[in-house]
Amino acid sequence: MSNSVVANRYSTALFELGQEKSLLNTLEIEIRGVQEVFQNNEQLQTFLNHPSIPVEKKKELLKDAFKDVSKELLNTLLIMVERHRESEILPMTEAFIQMNNEAQGVAEATVYSVRALSDDEKQSLEKVFAAKLDKKALHITNIVDPTIIGGVKLKIGNRIYDGTVSSKLERIERQLVSANK
């Protein structure tokens, strides 16, 4: 089985359980927390993926680290460790978030800008691009990138909307080079 198939199975099971118990919003918040912990802590991943560490020790660590999450999410994590699917936890969180976003009509957006955007600027971008993509809302992650000189670049799914000064300058440069040939 490929990694994405395994991750999708666990995320689908958790998503359906969340739907049954009306826990989707809670689960998404908790899963984003779990995702952040796994992304920012290489030692945790190394520990969980180490073959000589007993499964029970791995489960104890997860119970301690995630004692405040719902039993549904914690049990999913424990089952994944029990079945030696530790490496699938991060892909499972991503699949769950994507599934929940689709169910709620929300899209994840990464916005690159020269400086941190204000809440009003984020809301303005969300309003314009949510309507353009026929979504109810966008979850915006702002990344500060001084190399873009000015403007913003949005990445939503596999689409990129580039309104940066640096890309405009690159286009002008290409036009000048091709005109001089």
UniProtKB/TrEMBL annotation:
Its main location: membrane. Coiled coil: none annotated. InterPro entries: ATP_synth_OSCP/delta_N_sf, ATPase_OSCP/d_CS, ATPase_OSCP/dsu. It is found in: Cell membrane; Membrane. One of its GO terms (molecular function) is proton-transporting ATP synthase activity, rotational mechanism. One of its GO terms (cellular component) is proton-transporting ATP synthase complex. Keywords: ATP synthesis, Cell membrane, CF(1), Hydrogen ion transport, Ion transport, Membrane, Transport. Transmembrane segments: none annotated. It is a peripheral membrane protein. SUPFAM superfamilies: N-terminal domain of the delta subunit of the F1F0-ATP synthase. This protein is part of the stalk that links CF(0) to CF(1). It either transmits conformational changes from CF(0) to CF(1) or is implicated in proton conduction. F(1)F(0) ATP synthase produces ATP from ADP in the presence of a proton or sodium gradient. F-type ATPases consist of two structural domains, F(1) containing the extramembraneous catalytic core and F(0) containing the membrane proton channel, linked together by a central stalk and a peripheral stalk. During catalysis, ATP synthesis in the catalytic domain of F(1) is coupled via a rotary mechanism of the central stalk subunits to proton translocation. Belongs to the ATPase delta chain family. PANTHER family: ATP SYNTHASE DELTA CHAIN (PTHR11910). HAMAP family: ATP_synth_delta_bact. This is ATP synthase subunit delta. It comes from Salinibacillus xinjiangensis. The gene is atpH.
